[in-house]
Specification:
It contains 11 helices and 13 strands. It is an alpha/beta fold and 283 residues long. The protein has 2 domains: 183 residues, HAD superfamily/HAD-like (Rossmann fold), CATH 3.40.50.1000; 87 residues, Threonyl-tRNA Synthetase, Chain A, domain 2 (2-Layer Sandwich), CATH 3.30.980. Strand 11, helix 9 and strand 12 form a beta-alpha-beta unit.
Length: 283
């Protein structure tokens, strides 16, 4: 049984326009084959629900960099779900910590260390719209965070990025780097959420799970490290993330959704096994 886990911004969605049109060929094929397509993003539940509907998906989705996994009613009769919380038509598994706690930690450490950093909660709607290129209605949804606190580091403090990340880490929290923001969160990540989701599918189906993960940023590396076929698409500016861990990943020529299309079609054509075992693909 094949399962696809994918990042959104910069991967399935174009970094600037948020369009997934260049991936329509692969999306159509995935739907024809009935392969679960599980979105895994830094986006909030409210944002993810919209994209799940736009893509006409009925699968679970992973929100806020692996902080929670939401299972819609359409899969609750099929998947073996135990001890999950309910929210309307969804059951969900929490892996992250409450945002209120994150904001307190953020403010405490910034004051203590004098870091020149600014959090999402301190930004107005207009600034968030400018930084994300989102229309007003979608920017409002992006602000409805429960488990993570995005932030930016001022140019004056950019050289202290590693120090800032380490300071939050020593206090018991994770910081991951996305396409536009750093994200302060609990001790979880996309990889932990994907791994638990695979376990649920494995316990619910007799077929062996064969998974692909697709991403473009550092915060996608934990997800890519736990799937069978890790695929790294080119970033919006044509670059790739620099990481030793990513050296053996499948790497696309195409940028964003065009690269996503390449990776998924190759995965469906069975190119992944030999390619990954022989040290990855750089097309």
């Amino acid at each position: 049984m094949k399962i696809i886990f994918t990042d959104l911004d910069g991967s399935l969605l174009d970094h600037n326009s948020y369009s997934f049109d260049p991936a329509l060929e692969a999306l159509k094929r995935v739907k024809e084959l009935g392969i679960p397509l599980i979105l895994c993003s830094s986006k909030t539940f409210a944002e993810m629900e919209i994209y799940s509907k736009k893509l006409q998906l009925k699968e679970p989705f992973i929100v806020e960099n692996g902080s929670a996994v939401y299972f819609p009613a359409s899969v609750t009769d099929v998947l073996k779900l135990h001890g999950l919380k309910k929210d309307g038509d969804y059951r969900y598994m929490e892996l992250g910590v409450d945002r209120v706690r994150l904001i307190k930690v953020f403010n405490t450490i910034r004051r203590k260390k004098g870091f020149k950093i600014r959090s999402f909660s301190e930004m107005g709607l207009t600034q968030i719209m400018e930084m994300t290129s989102l229309p007003k209605n979608e920017a409002v949804l992006a602000m409805k965070r429960k488990y993570t606190e995005p932030f930016i580091i001022s140019e004056a403090d950019s050289a202290r990025a590693c120090e800032i990340i380490d300071e939050f880490g020593s206090s018991g929290f994770n910081v991951v780097s996305g396409g536009r923001f750093f994200h302060l969160m609990g001790k979880t990540d996309k990889g932990a959420a994907v791994k638990k989701t695979i376990e649920i599918y494995s316990s619910s189906y007799s077929d062996k799970i064969h998974s692909i993960g697709i991403g473009d940023s550092e915060n996608d590396l934990p997800m890519l490290s736990v799937v069978d076929f890790p695929a790294l698409v080119r970033k919006w500016d044509g670059s790739r993330i620099k990481s030793k861990a990513a050296e053996e990943f499948y790497r696309t020529d195409g940028i964003g959704p065009a690269g996503w299309n390449e990776a998924v079609l190759d995965f469906l054509q069975g190119k992944s096994d030999n390619d990954i075992q022989s040290g990855g693909v750089s097309k």
